[in-house]
Automatic annotation (TrEMBL), chains A, B:
This is 3-isopropylmalate dehydrogenase. Keywords: Amino-acid biosynthesis, Branched-chain amino acid biosynthesis, Leucine biosynthesis, Magnesium, Manganese, Metal-binding, NAD, Oxidoreductase. Gene3D superfamilies: Isopropylmalate Dehydrogenase. PANTHER family: 3-ISOPROPYLMALATE DEHYDROGENASE (PTHR42979). GO terms for biological process: L-leucine biosynthetic process. One of its GO terms (cellular component) is cytosol. InterPro entries: IsoPropMal-DH-like_dom, Isopropylmalate_DH. One of its GO terms (molecular function) is metal ion binding. It comes from Aestuariibaculum suncheonense.
Amino acid sequence: MKLNIAVLPGDGAGPEVTAQAVKVLKAIAMEFNHVFNFTEGLIGATAINQTGNPLPEETLDLCENADAVLFGAIGNTSYDLDPNAKIRPEQGLLGLRKSLGLYTNIRPVIAYEELLNKSSLKKKQIKDTNILIYRELTGGIYFGEKLLSDDGNKASDICEYNRFEIERIAHLAFKAAQSRKRKLALVDKANVLESSRLWRRVVQELAPQYPDVTVDYLFIDNAAMELIINPRQFDVILTENMFGDILSEEASVIVGSIGLLASASIGEKHAMFEPIHGAYTKGANKGIANPIASILSAAMLLEHFGLDDEAALVREGVDKSIKLHITTPDLNTKYDHITTTKVGDFIEDFINNPDETNLN
Amino acid sequence: MKLNIAVLPGDGAGPEVTAQAVKVLKAIAMEFNHVFNFTEGLIGATAINQTGNPLPEETLDLCENADAVLFGAIGNTSYDLDPNAKIRPEQGLLGLRKSLGLYTNIRPVIAYEELLNKSSLKKKQIKDTNILIYRELTGGIYFGEKLLSDDGNKASDICEYNRFEIERIAHLAFKAAQSRKRKLALVDKANVLESSRLWRRVVQELAPQYPDVTVDYLFIDNAAMELIINPRQFDVILTENMFGDILSEEASVIVGSIGLLASASIGEKHAMFEPIHGAYTKGANKGIANPIASILSAAMLLEHFGLDDEAALVREGVDKSIKLHITTPDLNTKYDHITTTKVGDFIEDFINNPDETNLN
Ligand SMILES: CC(C)[C@H](C(=O)O)[C@@H](O)C(=O)O
Ligand SMILES: CC(C)[C@H](C(=O)O)[C@@H](O)C(=O)O
């Protein structure tokens, strides 16, 4: 298969971790005789620094013409602490999601047997957790009109949803549930929000089309608690943009490190693959950022194109690195000095030579 | 002291738990020679059933003329599952918060030594956690304009904040931090929301007035993770209405049961005290609802009026009930059949006779 992949390393530790994912994809291409072409583009704070624009025209062109986008991370503390900045790194990511129509963000939360003791949660609580979060990604309060009064004393954001925006992702979530444990949990705040009531109404209306799927309805405050108390109750979680942002980052505590969570952002025409972690500015350029989220995002990319054996090999490599403690310090208490690059190298070696790779 | 207390038991298990708090307050009045008058009012689904209105005029009058309001719980599954209902129980609670101007909701999250093993989190992670959440309660997306298009295909909610709404609660949060560990964490989503940027700007502007307080800024997604990974990093958390709702219910996992979390809702003229849990419809009328959140809310009521010795005695009674396992099934694995009423009776007995109370 031939794939043109746009690579957007972005900010902070983004470039380091993305480099490992590219390394892994190159090894896969070699091993399976695919042709993957990688072209880099600027985005985020890095793009602002170099072009004044968090999402330069060329980057958008690149992504629109690529078969898939591999995204690193975005954000920078100096912008975070400057609420007056009019141009912000995140506009790059949000602009890209919107322009490419990536309305469905899929975030798997899977507890690794070997990492159960790394979690803040008790082992027996999280064992066998396997959740798929379907987060709506191009609507809601992220994209509704934002206003700041002229005197700067009043600010507002609109959370708006249209029925079709809910329907299209809900169908995907129902279908995902059908191929899993046939449970869908809608998370909203329908006891307070009109937009949440639209979500609930639409999901209730679609449910009869999926009679084999059991639907639960949870309020976001309750869901934030249940996710920790009893994560195993969940199979597929469907939710709007902001609640999905919160729940998916919260869910990282189950897995033991946010450096493990990958995601796929899918639209009708385009697809982007991104770790759910941020730029991790304070860990950048130290070789300590965990590349696994980025590498697993690459695995999701492969799966998106039906390259299941290829993806399985990547996942095996990741499993093996975890089993042998070839992991960055967020997970590793056994060995020192296992760097971002070293983890990438290990998984690359494994792909080249699945039967022989060990700690080297 | 003479206090007129409006009692709003509300829905589900609200009446059961509130009855225990009233019992405890009566014991305190007796012991310390206070005069507490209790008058009940209707609210929520119960009020809709009886009057058609979730917040009847008489209830509002009652609360406006009371020195304090003791609130039970609100909500009903049949409304939760009916997104088309125009009249909803929650309108009672939200209407009351707004009418009484209760803009500051204070939610303490304190890990009980004896309950550390009840939490889903590992003991060493949560030991000594002591957080005060300052949640804005009368603004934001809860109260902004809500629209549903005529064809029912589009719905929206506005999240709006004015500078003064942020300033008044921020001052209170800063002051609370000064009397504690001098750490304030603002939780927002300033990388995306205009309203969050106003929060961040205002807090940054006020910070120099509190030079002894260290201020941290966290995005809500990150905070939802950090609260679980490392709750001890937090002292006072300040946040807007919706994020506060989510974080405070999530925080219940630290304490071991949502049935333990009390809150005070304070305005310029009025004050209301409410457990943070909901109506717990499926546990209602079974004697299994934990009354401690309601009883601790009564303790916060006493503190609000400077009755610190009285509050301390209530807290001692709660501590003792926990130590002796006189607790409802959410916490109790030692004894069966410790009902809601039995817990209330125990704490009442303790107040009457602090030196002699034991399991009877
Ligand atoms: C960087 C930020 C804008 C982004 C979001 O809020 O969507 C991130 O937190 C994420 O989850 O992908
Ligand atoms: C019942 C509901 C409207 C309420 C809220 O969302 O504020 C509750 O969850 C709370 O936290 O007090």
